[in-house]
Amino acid sequence: MLDPFDTEHLDKRALRRELRRRRRALSDAEQQMAATSLCQRLKKLPEIQRARRVSLYLPVGGEIDPTSLLGWFQKRRVTVYLPVLRPLSHNALWFVRFDDDTPMVENRFGISEPCTRFGARRQNRLPAWALDTLIVPLVGFDGEANRMGMGGGFYDRTLAFMRRPGPKPALIGVAHACQQVNELEVEPWDIPLDAVVSDQNIVRRSGG
To answer: Do the bridges between strand 195-198 and strand 202-204 make them parallel or antiparallel, or are there none, so unpaired?
Structure first.
């Protein structure tokens, strides 16, 4: 496992930039090997094995790729959802059912997502609380499974309900091992993950 690197001399913006550079620098072969190792680890997690409604994401910018799980989920009759930018909402997501026939569009960030226009059925859409497990991308993580995201707060706003009573999905972050740092500053609005899985290790939140 790679040693987490020291972040004391970097502010949050510089750290986010450095971590994104690290994952983009991985070769295609390294990306493929990391994705294979990641998915092998994810398949063994109880939060994945018992789930029947799971959210994934389509990787961009060097993000580790969890999509080889799609065939495995299909065989297990697990329904897969992808995050979609909610219209008329400030930096929040909903989750739309995804399969081989799902029409896709690019959102304002150039990321592919299921099309929710032109009469897309409402029953294909779920709020986050109705999912069993969310597989969440990240920019950085530490040994306590703290997560640094892209900076837009999309997942933190979407998952704010996790602080209230009621149904709560499992939250699993995924990343390349090179994205682990020695310590991340935790903000009051950060929603904690249950675990972070990389191509080299699994980190669980203390007491989680």
So the answer is: antiparallel
Strand partners, 80: 54
- As to burial, measured by CB atoms within 10 angstroms (0-12 exposed, 13-18 middle, 19+ buried), residue 83 is buried
The answer to whether 193 and 172 are in contact (CB under 8 A) is yes
CA 21 – CA 19 distance, rounded (Å) = 5
Contacts of 163 (CB under 8 A, 6+ apart): 191
| pLDDT tens digit sequence for 71-91 | 999 999 999 999 998 655 566
State the pTM of this model.
Answer: 0.89
- Average predicted confidence (pLDDT) for the chain: 88
For CA atoms 97, 133, 150, 29, the dihedral sign is: negative
